[in-house]
Each structure stands twice: as C-alpha cells, then as structure tokens.
Write a structure and sequence with these properties.
Number of strands: 0
Order of helices and strands: HHHHHHHH
Largest sheet: none
Distance between the termini: 23 Å
Number of helices: 8
Strand content: under 5%
Shape: globular
Length: about 210
C-alpha cells in the first residue's frame, strides 16, 4: 500500500509542477515584456509556425527527451517522461484563462510584478522536480552527459543552451526584454532559496516525527 501512496504522492507533485510551469509560461508570454530563454524559444516558434504554445512546447520537449534518452538514458525517469509529454497540454489548458486577463494592457510596474511571480512559479517547479521527482529534466540529462563525456562543466553548458534558446527564439520573433533580465537574475537564486526553505521544513518535520 505504501508503494501506491508514494507513487500517488509523486504524481500529485508532478501535476502541481506542470500546472506551475504552464502558469509561468503563459504569464511570461501574455505580459509581453520578455521571458526566460526557453519561453522565448517557445514564443518565437509559436509565432513563426502558427502552432499553439503548448503544441510547440510538446515538440521541443520530444526532441529534448529523445536526445536525453539517446545520450543519458539512466538519468531519464518517470517524472522526466510524464513532464515532457503533458506540460504542453497544461500550457494550452491554462492559456485561455490568462489571455482573458489582458495582461499586456497593464502598467509596466504590474507586469514586472507578474513576471517576478512567474519566476517564483518556475523556481517552485524546479525544486519539486529535483526533490520529489524521479529522473532529471531532459536538458539536465543531456548536460550531465556532456559534462561526464567531454568535461564541459554543467554551468557552462547551461549558459550555452540558454544562449541557443534565446537567440533562436529571438530570431523567430520571441520577445526579449526586461522580463528576460529578471528571469536571468531571479530564477537561479530563487530556486536555491526555496530549496533551502524546503530543506529546513523537511528537517523540522522529521524531528517532529522522531519526538512523537
């Protein structure tokens, strides 16, 4: 029974992570002041192909997942597969609700606040997938492979990937702006901060269980 409960808990956390990702992507795009590098890529491909952002995300994730399975299959697990297949539909599902808010018409200050909120959603997603998921996100699996095979440090590889996403997305019409700068500045530190907070909460919870 405990195995099923554990599986159900992981699945629920994965659903929350996909909802937060979908929310972040839509907030970034609808604010129209720039977004993180992957969303810039999705936005550019969406505009140039006419496909929905969710469908664009699905195809990009399939390419990354295929590369991850080819290069570093042992790092791809249940969470990696489910996230890659279903985050796109979640993006499409949430989009009408966010589009109806007409965020692009708001003041710049409010849009900056919303973009910061979108970054917060991303940071929560990353922490949930790292701490409770089963398997790396496909990009991370690829970068870990290049690190072990060619000695290319993960952080350097990540910068390279971000540069490719950003330039490609911008070339195809993705918006690069103050939101992109905010994403660069906040996503990493925000993820580390939330990771520390979660670690403290889990430690307190384990201590309470021991005492009881």
């Amino acid at each position: 029974m405990s195995i099923y409960l554990k599986f159900g808990g992981r699945l629920m956390i994965l659903v929350v992570a996909m909802v937060l990702t979908a929310l972040a992507v839509n907030l970034f795009i609808e604010c129209n002041i720039g977004s993180d590098t992957l969303t810039v890529l999705l936005d550019g491909l969406h505009k140039s192909t006419g496909m929905s952002v969710g469908l664009t995300s699905f195809f990009v994730n399939m390419v990354l997942l295929a590369a991850g399975l080819l290069l570093n299959r042992k790092s791809i697990g249940f969470s990696s597969m489910i996230y890659s297949f279903f985050v796109g539909p979640f993006i499409n599902w949430i989009h009408p609700f966010i589009a109806h808010m007409q965020l692009a018409d708001l003041s710049l200050f409010i849009k900056i606040v919303i973009v910061i909120l979108a970054n917060f959603c991303y940071s929560i997603t990353y922490v949930l997938l790292m701490k409770f998921g089963n398997g790396m996100y496909a990009i991370d699996a690829i970068l870990r492979y290049t690190e072990s095979k060619f000695g290319l440090r993960y952080d350097i590889g990540r910068i390279g990937v971000d540069a490719i996403f950003l330039s490609t997305g911008f070339f195809f019409g993705g918006i690069v702006g103050i939101g992109t700068v905010i994403a660069f500045a906040l996503t990493g530190p925000g993820t580390l901060l939330l990771e520390k907070i979660l670690f403290i909460l889990l430690q307190k919870n384990s201590r309470n269980k021991i005492i009881s």
